[in-house]
Amino acid sequence: MFATLGLFSSLPCPERPSCSRPNCLFSHSADIPPQRQLVLPKPTPAKPTPAEPKPTLVPAKRPTAPSTPPEPPRKLQKVAPPQRPLPVQSSSRSETGVPILKVNAAQSLVAIPVRQTMLKTLYDHFVVLYRAILPSNPSLASDHALKQEEEVYKKSTKLTYRNAVIQCVAALKRRETPTSINHPSVGTEDEIAARLEAQKSIEALRLSRELLEPFVHSLEELERYGYFTKIPDGPGGDQPTQEGKIAKCERCGQYFLVKHEQEEEKCIYHWGKAFTSRVNGEKVRNYTCCSRPADGEGCSHGPHVFYDSKAEELHSRHPFSFLKESDGNGKLDVVALDCEMIYTTGGMRVARVSVVDGSGKQILDELIRMDEGVHVIDYNTRFSGINKENHATAVLTLAAVRDTLDSLIDTNTILIGHALDNDLKTLRIIHHKCVDTALLFPHRAGPPYRRSLKDLVREKLGKMIQMGDATQGHSSLEDAISTLDLVRWYILNKQKSAIHADVKR
To answer: Where does the Exonuclease domain lie (predicted)?
Structure first.
């Protein structure tokens, strides 16, 4: 046992003299002086403070009540539901800054600082390349730099990684500066290579009658989408113009007197289409041209115009007819065509027609002069691309253009187009062998709704068309080629789907 320190031996036992503990820690000696008592100072009473006078029940002077009316009850605001936490990304970036890699260093063959340095180099060069389109796409350089670095890393080893990035940077410097998000120069090296390969496959496919026969629409399907399949009664062409008569304006809905010298600022209208969207949970309708409410005043000014839609009305302006019967003289088996129309005293009339064969080669691209007695009201340049100056060079009338078409195609020719019924109506052609991309790629709402050619080409082909402004408009030749490429794309992807289905079996 350890020896005691005897720290309590100088203190008297509290139970002395009756303590019975053996070896008591305290002292039992009578010589120990008694402990000094701890004296606490008594608190001195505080001087009484004079009591404050109690307030009276009624104030000496009542406050004057404000004269403003009470505040109306506030409206309750909708509280958005709590947002779910976002998943952690493999990399982070600011909207316009250098992206930062977030990868496991133990799983990376190349040191993370080296990869981050190379990523910044790629980002800097993408910023220079995309300088014209970054204001409207601020995260594009960051996104593509991340994708490009990942592509290079997956194809490289630890020794070849740095040189592979340098080669990629050199390729970026050789690219043409893009002017739109869908320019061929936009994308990573792999994305551009994939687009080029797909375009080569599309261009290499020559469409033939045998290849397209399974995709020709039935008469019932054509009629459901508004095609005319029969020639109206009567000789036609007996009322080529509506001048001097009352018609309903297609743009603003007002009735007006048709004359070839209309007042340019008389009609107030929207040139875009009304669309429905949700704002704060409520449906609102606005126009695509100006984003104004559908019930508001128009954003554009122009002359009153009218549009004939019934077969009998169109037949009276210029007669319908079938294409010539096949005579075995080697007419084209497949063509794609597109037309541009303008407003006249005879309604909407064709002013340009473009035709390409099954390989995309231009066969015909002609401006069309109006019939005798028919005058132009509005060239509809925003959409047609035609103005007074270039239309003045037109030589052939519609009848002459129909004779030219009869020398190229016949009743066995398969015609390709987008919303082809409109082109056939303005050309006054009745034809039953048609492939319409508006039907191959139907609108989710079904007929009569149709997807636009511009949207389909952007989605399927990755290209932008119809990018002209109000002074340039569209190009019927560009639209005809794009429609042909859409059909090629459709057939190629159908074949791929069939191959995959056979493999699964």
So the answer is: 333-496
